[in-house]
Amino acid sequence: MRYVVIDLETTGNSPAKSGKIIEIGMVVIENEEIKETKTTLLNPNQSIPPFISHLTGIHNEEVKDAPLFIDEAEAITRILQDSYIIAHNANFDVGFLNMELTSNGYPELKNQVLDTVELSRILFPSISSYKLNHLADYFELHHDDPHRALSDAYVTAKLFFKLKEKLDHLPYETLYKLKNLEDKLQSDLATILDNRLEELAFQEHPDDQIKHYQGLAFRMSEKETKTQSPIDLSFGEYLDDIYNKPGALSKAFSSYEPREGQRQMSETIYDAFSAKKHAFIEAGTGTGKSLAYLLPAVYQAVNHKERLIISTYTTQLQSQLLEEEIPLLRKIIHSPFKVALMKGKNHYLNLEKFLYELDYGSKDNYDFVLTKAILLVWITETETGDIDEIQLPAGGYIFFQKVSADVEKTMNPKSPWFHHSYYQLARRRAQKANIVITNHALLCTDMFNDYAFLPSYQKVIIDEAHHFEETASHHYGLKLDYIQMQFTCNYLGTADEDKQFSAVLKASNVKKREELADRWNAAMKEAKYDIDELFHLIERFVMAQQKSDKATSDLGRVQYRIKTDTYQQDAWQLAQDLAARLRLHFQKQLDVLMQLINDYALENDDEKQFLENIGQMQDVLEKYMEDLKVMFQEQNEVELIKWAEVDLKGRHHSVFLYSEPSNMAPILAEDFFSQKESVIFTSATLTMGSSFKFIKERLGVAEKDLLTEQIASPFQYDKQVQLLVPTDFPDIKYGNIDDFVYAVCEAILSLAEVTSGRMLVLFTSYDMLKKANDLLKEMMTDQQYVIIAQGVTSGSRSRLKKNFQSYDQAILLGTSSFWEGVDIPGEDLSALVMARLPFQPPNHPVFEAKSHQMKEAGRNPFMDLSLPQAVIKFKQGFGRLIRSSEDRGIVFICDGRIKTAKYGKYFLESIPTVPVHYETTRHLMNTAENWFHQ
């Protein structure tokens, strides 16, 4: 086969908007070898925009004597004749080329096309980015001149060889299933797949770990570790052998230096285990707390033959534990031990459901088809079936809901699919493990469901523990929203649509099928109408209540707390009536499903699939009925905080309803602490003023059962950080918000001159962030900094962070979730700006409710709730800057209260001792310049 790889440099992103080609690079491949290259500069007959010149290095003077496109069109089409066209993002390159050809009187290209972005996504689904330069780094492909056409085309050709090699190593069944999807993909793979299938027709796949079942090829193995034996040392000797010099760690790392705090933490945890006590351990950044808690966990588990749970909040920390810390432990501990990762069902692929969707599911949606192709390849590689291993397109996560293990209501152990279930495999691994790593969400789900999800345990270490109360509250509470409810209704469908209900109705053999279809359709029509009415009513109600002093979430949604007096208002009583009607419609649908089950002929071969599908529908409808009851009735067994949020940026009816307990302490005391022998909480931020009082009260841990320990960071903060506080900022409390934001933006840009951007700016309100974003873009004359703003720039938190790190001079603006859990080590981050001290807005629904509760109990909500929360969040924000002993940076706090208010000392005392400069902004910038460049 003959392939021609093309790449274009253009004056803009769209030929329809006067974009023109300024360079074309072409690489010819024949017999799996590069045979020829060609590159041509083209005169676009228009000026090249400065940012394009900056990106490509192509300037107007270089193209003024170059040929026009029409002069080269014949030569270009001749090279492309009888060839596959390969391009990285082929729609762009082929589309641009066709527009130029047709506008110059040439016919459109009809070549078969291969898109290396699409193929990379399918064949290498675990890569984090599919930009050409990232793929070049990943595959170690030499890239002479990024953003020049020939260099990009040459690297794309080398990438194609890697993709073709991967395709040629896939099993027959995988290629056969891919062939069935090929017509909906952008790449024309049919001939390539046919040729390869013909070659493989009578060959066995060489990998014996690949299983072949019902036309599906997938990897699944249960690795057995060596037989375990106790660690034949006392705990002190065990730590000596690891921490002391010379010891296991100094043999593993030539530059190893013992950290006193790390050993201290290990000893405290083992003391808590031995005494069957709970513990709070605050360990400063750089302590090495992961290793510090893993060492006593392994010793306890192996020597006492018991299982320990380690729970984290972020998947990032789970990955670090599994990919870095556990392999290190296996090197330094000579006794074998077993570790397993356990997540909720919704993280694991269900192969039976996936096969059903491959064979019978819709092929209309491109994201769904692309996701199926990605999953087909991934299951030949994954040993876990955990979807977090790979990147899916946006719509792919919607498809994954249909094929995740979450759809398993129960799984019959006699079913052949039981032994091909990734979720069941994860459960078996967890059951045999000494250490099970999980997340706070599953830990709380397990706790509030009579410990039915995780294997039994008595000791647990909770890392990132400052999130635990919030996670527990969310899991005990609920969320209802319009979009999800309508999505569910559309997913269930009517009897006339090719959806869930239609499938179970067709599979049944009941006599009154038409009558049941009519009953279901009528109930569904009424339900969809009343969902629309209910959320529209709540939206109008919230906006009417919140005409002034609107509470907003960190994403800018308007918030309203549903209080006792809310239930007396006519509009809310109407909402209660609508909710009651909705529950009635759902009950009618449940009645139809129950009749289908009762009348179903049990000898039918499809009974299992039928009952599973109906069970899934029943679960969804019953949950909605229960949630509507809790949200709209005034009294509940546990005192709940309820509130509504309206997203003004979203489409009509972007309305969300929430509830969570007003006090988790008694619930956790009864359901968790009294049930477990030893719960260890650890984080870099658990105290205020060296006291654990706040966190102890919020979680409900009895003093008599508790050990506490504070371990200082080993970093030299006094040499690594300068903290700057301006004396001349406008006072925001007198309504000078616009002046204050202007001063913040001036300081940001002045400080950015010192640090070359590389700055994270933390806000406490989305409105202020948005104002600052708009103002910064106005104030920059030459757009020297890339501004990336949470909630304005599209993308997840991790995507925004990656974008920030990919630019040389960038400023990242973030609200609530950016105050923690964002690691940007080294020179990527040199300055941290805090616009305001992170006090929760007093009208935030949860804070308002808890504050009112405290007042009624005769307590001081500011000292007992507001200040501790703000101090802990401040510590988290401060911790974003210094992530290693080599990091240096500036913290600029725009809020003078840290020096002028009586409570300011609590903030400064909560962080390591650093030089604090309290001067005019001009003086501070001179200080920053002198220190940063010394």
Question: How would you describe what is shown here?
Answer:
The protein has 934 residues and is α/β, with parallel strands linked by helices. Among the domains are: 2-168, Nucleotidyltransferase, domain 5 (2-Layer Sandwich), CATH 3.30.420; 478-661, no CATH class; 717-932, Rossmann fold, CATH 3.40.50. 47% of the residues lie in helices and 14% in strands. It has a seven-stranded parallel beta sheet with strand order 10-11-9-12-18-8-19, with helices on both faces. A hairpin with a 2-residue loop joins strand 2 (21-30) and strand 3 (33-41). It is globular.
Distance between the termini: 60 Å
Low-confidence stretches: none
CATH architecture of the domain at 717-932: 3-Layer(aba) Sandwich
The percentage helix is 40-55%
